[in-house]
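Re: that backbone. Tokens:
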């Protein structure tokens, strides 16, 4: 192995570069279609002398610093960080799927296309909205697809110019108003009532002829059922607007309630949350849109269609909003969802929602009295507490509580969201946590509540047992490092003689 040059040194293509073997660039210079000699790409690379065992230990040690659902309880509210069956990963990695080229002719991809068609049919049945597009690559992209479909539908009926507003509840996911704005609409916030559901009177005051759609999360981000949703749907349709559903919290109602039956026109789903794909670290994801037959012509391209002879192909719907990413969706995520649904069946899916609701309410009961409950209602998939008493009485913020949880070996829950709850602690135990793990997590939070009374400074300094303590988040936001920089070289030692 050659060791000339420095690690990571840039390749030099000139023949006179010191310390590098001369290469004859003249014979390929000026012919960009030709490849350079293989040796040219290796001349200046110095590889470290490491055994395989040393390298494995290095990366294993690094991976141990990360926390995931395979490590322990990951109660990140609204994100549904649950354990996912490994068999679904196995299905997605089968060579017939994983090694298929995305540009292969449809005739050679009939198995994959059949699987996608079956998944679309199952999602249509689960949501009560049979027109399904699998192309969006994430929940936020699925949202955008749904709102662009709303826009295209209004445009086709000649009603777009007069409908410029989209209504969004104040408890919505932050992507909802952002999506509506990206789709070209003005956003009007609708307040929640004292029970955590949409304030019906406020909705009636703002719902008029210039409204394009109302975006509603069911269940909402407070972990509560949206009371009166069928009446809301009827009122929206009477005003000539469309009802958009954020299906990110589907695991709370899976197999029990269908969006189409409630009166929704279009909804997006987060397959990487509800249907078995690990999604820590920002991906992967898939956000299919499900819609009424009336909106089918506007689905994002492509969609799987069956011809009269039974063969399948990818087509662009007649008035499609277009293609949102390359090829035909996040295949690995879609395959996992297909395997998850087929392996559980309808009764298994109902058990998912039952366990999600049971676990959230059990945690609610265990922590009631230690933390404030802004809404005295039974929770669904998640429960939102408030650390306001701790801050008011002991100067301990929700942020401090979350950091202290790290010392107890738990990943912190979502904090300061939803925005309408002061000092919010948004906790989702998910359907896959055991009774024992939920009780251990609750015990840690109760102990932290006692510490807040007895020794607030202990929480202010947390975490005490982590490789990194508290980051300068304000500094990171104002001075982001957007590209890799080499580490600073140590200063040359001074000669004090």
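Recovered sequence:
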């Amino acid at each position: 192995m050659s060791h000339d040059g420095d690690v990571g040194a840039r390749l030099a293509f000139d023949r006179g570069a010191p310390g590098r073997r001369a290469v004859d660039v003249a014979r390929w210079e000026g012919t960009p279609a030709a490849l350079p000699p293989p040796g040219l790409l290796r001349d200046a690379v110095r590889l470290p002398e490491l055994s395989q065992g040393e390298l494995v230990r290095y990366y294993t040690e690094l991976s141990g610093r990360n926390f995931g659902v395979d490590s322990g309880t990951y109660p990140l509210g609204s994100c549904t960080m649950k354990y996912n069956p490994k068999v679904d990963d196995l299905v997605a990695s089968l060579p017939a799927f994983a090694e298929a080229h995305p540009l292969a002719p449809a005739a050679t991809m009939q198995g994959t296309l059949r699987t996608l068609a079956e998944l679309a049919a199952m999602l249509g049945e689960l949501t009560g909205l049979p027109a399904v597009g699998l192309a969006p690559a994430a929940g936020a992209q699925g949202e955008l697809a749904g709102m662009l479909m709303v826009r295209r539908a209004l445009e086709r009926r000649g009603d777009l110019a007069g409908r410029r507003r989209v209504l969004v509840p104040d408890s919505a996911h932050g992507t909802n108003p952002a999506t509506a704005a990206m789709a070209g609409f003005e956003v009007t916030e609708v307040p929640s009532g004292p029970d955590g559901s949409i304030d019906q009177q406020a909705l009636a005051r703002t719902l008029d002829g210039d409204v394009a759609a109302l975006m509603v999360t069911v269940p909402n981000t407070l972990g509560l059922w949206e009371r009166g949703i069928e009446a809301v749907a009827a009122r929206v349709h009477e005003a000539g607007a469309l009802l958009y559903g954020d299906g990110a919290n589907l695991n709370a109602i899976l197999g029990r309630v269908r969006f189409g039956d409630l009166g929704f026109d279009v909804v997006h789903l987060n397959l990487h949350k509800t249907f078995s794909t690990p999604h820590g670290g920002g991906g992967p994801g898939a956000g299919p849109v499900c819609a009424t037959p009336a909106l089918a012509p506007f689905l994002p391209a492509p969609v799987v269609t069956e011809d009269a002879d039974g063969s399948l192909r990818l087509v662009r719907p007649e008035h499609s909003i277009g293609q949102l990413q390359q090829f035909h969706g996040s295949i690995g995520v879609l395959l996992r969802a297909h395997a998850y649904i087929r392996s559980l069946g309808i009764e298994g899916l109902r058990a998912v929602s039952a366990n999600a609701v049971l676990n959230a309410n059990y945690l609610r009961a265990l922590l009631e009295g230690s933390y404030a409950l802004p809404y005295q209602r039974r929770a669904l998939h998640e429960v939102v507490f408030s650390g306001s008493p701790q801050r008011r009485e002991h100067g301990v913020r929700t942020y401090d509580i979350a950091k202290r949880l790290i010392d107890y070996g738990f990943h912190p829950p979502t904090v300061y969201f939803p925005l309408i709850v002061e000092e919010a602690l948004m906790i989702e135990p998910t359907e896959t946590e055991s009774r024992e793990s939920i009780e251990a997590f609750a015990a840690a939070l109760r102990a932290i509540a006692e510490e807040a009374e007895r020794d607030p400074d202990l929480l202010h300094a947390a975490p005490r047992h982590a490789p990194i303590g508290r980051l300068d988040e304000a500094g990171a936001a104002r001075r982001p490092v957007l590209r890799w920089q080499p580490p600073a070289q140590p200063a040359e030692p001074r000669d004090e003689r």
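The mean pLDDT is 89. The longest helix spans residues 331-367.
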